[in-house]
Amino acid sequence: MKTLKLIAVLLVCIGFHSCQDEISQNQIAPNDQIEKRQLKLKGWTPSDCVAMNIFISPECGDNWTQGVLDAIDSYNNLFIAVTMNVVEEEANSNLVIHCEQFSDLIDDIIGVGEIPLNDGENGTDIYFNTFFEDDCANPCWFQRVAMHELSHTLGITHNDEDLDNFVCCAGPLSFDSETGLFDPWEFGEYVELELIEGTPHGFQEGSIFNAIGPPCDESFCTFSEFDIVALETLYDPCDCPETECDCAMSQIDLLLVPGQEICAGEIAKLFVIHEIPPGSNPRYEWTFDGPISGSSHGESASIIGQSGGHRPLGSICVTVTTDCGSIELCENVMIVDCDGGEPGNNGPGGGNNGPGGPK
User: Fold this and answer.
1) Measuring CA to CA, how many Å separate 341 from each of 145, 175, 258, 291, 347?
2) N or C: which end of the chain has fewer CB within 10 A?
């Protein structure tokens, strides 16, 4: 089987890899110098809410059709402000899936998806090459290709593009069924890309957004961790007034282990116990007061009780913040001198004159 390429297309720019050898090499960074990551057009802003009504052309065979349907299910199972629905009439759609026989000149291209250039817009067309309809017996391969091209319509570019030299071609996307070519098919200006917030600078194997995917029998059809981060960042459901976004925490509590009394000098652990909807982006801020010192680790913290103080009672507070608000939890903890009583009391080992009390 040939080396297969997945191609991104802009509403006004058509980006593709198969023609890069025609470009002056000083305009393109060597492939091994390009940091691979989740990218979008620099400065581009998506819509807060996206409803995609997708029409699948009857020219698409069973494999491409099922691949698109499976890809739609994958997106609809994410916690993002995007809904995808299949419609039976093209007139009721805002995204059309085309299946065409590509020319021999570009027969190594599997699919082409429009990337939105204007703020708040999404791509309106995806083309799949019918040459590959019967070229693979693995349904997951078709699903992955469809997931990849749908990501372009949501504004995500290839991970392996150069930030400063993304190749594009001027003109709207148009396919000529007679020639099997896209028109125009010539180079235009370069556009800049930018990293999607929260995604890594290093290449992540297994990303749906990689330009060149695995062969048929090794294909995967699940989003990587950072694919999901990129989509949740661009399409945060809490930004969409039409999406029910319940970021409120339920059954929230602060658990202290081993309990409300801890021995001076020994380490105790605290854990935030809660139920938070996926995509709520929780953040934790810890404070420690009294005869204790502590360090935080996200939703957990470690504390050490200090002996010999006037105040054997300490407190720990954590503020948990999501995109929809915050809540503060506090717990008191008694510091006990396990070798001789509680510091600061008049009992054995305590009192003002006893060991463990103030001198």
Assistant:
1) 68, 84, 18, 15, 7
2) C
Place of tokens 């698109």: 68
Phi-psi region of 323 (alpha: psi -120 to 50; beta: other; left: phi over 0): alpha
Q: Which amino acid is at 173?
A: L
Contacts of 210 (CB under 8 A, 6+ apart): 6, 36, 158, 159, 160
Note the pLDDT tens digit of each residue in 61-72. Answer: 999 999 999 999
End-to-end CA distance of the chain: 84
Of residues 143 and 36, more confidence is placed in: 143
Q: Is the torsion defined by CA of 263, 266, 269, 270 positive or negative? A: positive
Higher confidence at residue 191 or residue 247?
191
Per-residue pLDDT tens over the stretch 257-287: 777 788 888 888 877 776 666 656 678 888 8
49: left (phi over 0), alpha (psi -120 to 50) or beta: beta
Burial code (b: 16+ CB inside 10 Å, e: under 16) for 29-63 equals eeeeebebbbbbbeebebbbebebbbbbbeebeeb
Residue 252 reports pLDDT greater than 80: no
| Dihedral over Cα of 212, 218, 221, 226: its sign | negative
Strand-pair category, 95-100 with 50-56: parallel
Sign of CA dihedral 133, 135, 138, 140: negative
